[in-house]
Design brief:
Blueprint lengths: L6 H16 L3 H14 L5 H14 L2 H8 L11 E5 L9 H9 L3 E5 L6 H13 L7 E3 L8 E5 L2 H10 L5 E4 L3 E5 L6 H12 L9 E7 L4 H7 L10 H16 L5 E2 L4 E4 L9 E7 L2 H10 L4 E6 L8 E2 L17 H6 L2
Parallel strand pairs: 1-2, 1-4, 2-3, 4-5, 6-7, 6-11, 7-10, 9-10, 11-12
Antiparallel strand pairs: 8-9
Helix pairs in contact: 1-3, 1-6, 8-9
């Protein structure tokens, strides 16, 4: 058995996990998707496959070493870190577990009831690869006796977490969303790439784009046409129900909107749009755009633009493939764990 108190052994085991994920057979993926979909109807085989590939690819040895670089991740006495996981998209809680393990601590995990099958698959696979990790991961329904807490939830649950865990060092995350910046001269191929950021996971993730900022007078017809290949989202009954419901509300209330046939565009200053709706807001000049984004900085997870031209943004189509160091809410989880 390797000595997992040593960082290179932990990195090696986590890299092996990535390789095992990437080598899953179609039959194994189907069986996983069946179990996960039974718990959460939003978890389709396509969504699960994308999440598995993203995790597998992120666990390259090079990426793990870069993730850990410059940090002191050899605690004299491992701390117990409570993890409250979300379940809005497949395995969204894995990054927190990864951070705790690579930092050399113990994870006390409260899984989301919406995502137990996939997370248990990852945890059990880690334990098979490196049995010593079995003593570093404990599942629980009630968090107590931990040294620190990392919790993810809605704005309402975040308020509860902040009160309940006030005495513990903590990272408490709440609702965020992502936005796109449009210049107006994007190619149809670029807008099609943006479709991944809009429609992957049916728009349920905090890295999904729910709003686009467009120049005044922007013509949405080419935008809608470039996204036509994503119409298959309507095949999901829950997505279709949301589309039908929001469409009927807009029609009954005579609210101005554009209907593509599978998603709607509606002007709004709000950031978080309902499922099947993309909010849009116009800007007169770059300075006004900067002000609008700066005003919402604490609610935006990431910003996307064509080829990442807008400062601090990433390229269209890449929102759901974050690097290990693309921390949720911009809070460096490893730095937090290192400082305990």
């Amino acid at each position: 058995m390797n000595d997992i108190s040593l960082l290179p052994y932990r990195i090696s085991a986590l890299h092996t996990l990535g390789q095992k994920i990437l080598l899953l057979t179609e039959a194994e993926k189907e069986e996983l998707a069946l179990r996960a979909g039974g718990q959460n109807n939003w978890f389709t085989p396509t969504s699960i496959n994308h999440a598995l590939n993203a995790i597998g690819q992120s666990l390259s040895r090079e990426a793990l070493e870069q993730f850990a670089a410059g940090k002191n991740l050899s605690p004299a006495k491992p701390k117990t870190i409570g993890l409250v996981m979300a379940g809005n998209i497949p395995m969204v809680g894995f990054h927190d577990l990864l951070s705790v393990l690579i930092a050399g601590h113990k994870a006390l995990v409260k899984l989301s009831s919406q995502d137990t099958a996939l997370m248990l698959f990852l945890i059990n696979t880690i334990k098979e690869i490196e049995p010593a990790f079995g003593e570093r991961i404990e599942l629980t329904e009630r968090l107590q006796g931990m040294d620190a807490i990392i919790a993810t939830g809605s704005d309402n649950s975040a308020r509860y977490f902040k009160h309940y865990f006030a005495k513990n060092p903590h990272i408490i995350r709440q609702n965020r969303t992502s936005v796109a910046v449009i210049k107006g001269d994007e190619s149809p191929e670029s807008i099609k790439a943006l479709g991944n950021d809009l429609f992957l996971y049916y728009g349920l993730g905090c890295r999904n784009v729910s709003k686009v900022y467009v120049p005044e007078g922007y013509d949405f017809i080419p935008f809608i046409e470039a996204l036509s290949s994503y119409e298959s989202v309507l095949e999901h009954h829950k997505y279709r129900n949301n589309y039908d419901y929001n469409k009927s509300i807009y029609l009954v209330n005579r609210e101005p909107h554009l209907d593509s046939g599978f998603f709607m565009l509606r002007e709004s200053e709000e950031l978080v749009s309902p499922i099947s709706v993309i909010f849009h807001e116009s800007y007169a000049n770059p300075a006004e755009l900067d002000l609008k984004l700066a005003a919402n900085q604490d609610k935006i997870q990431c910003t996307v633009s064509e080829h990442g031209w807008y400062e601090g943004s990433i390229a269209f189509g890449e929102a759901q493939q974050p690097a290990l160091w693309d921390y949720a809410d911009g809070v460096d989880t490893l730095e937090f764990l290192e400082g305990l």
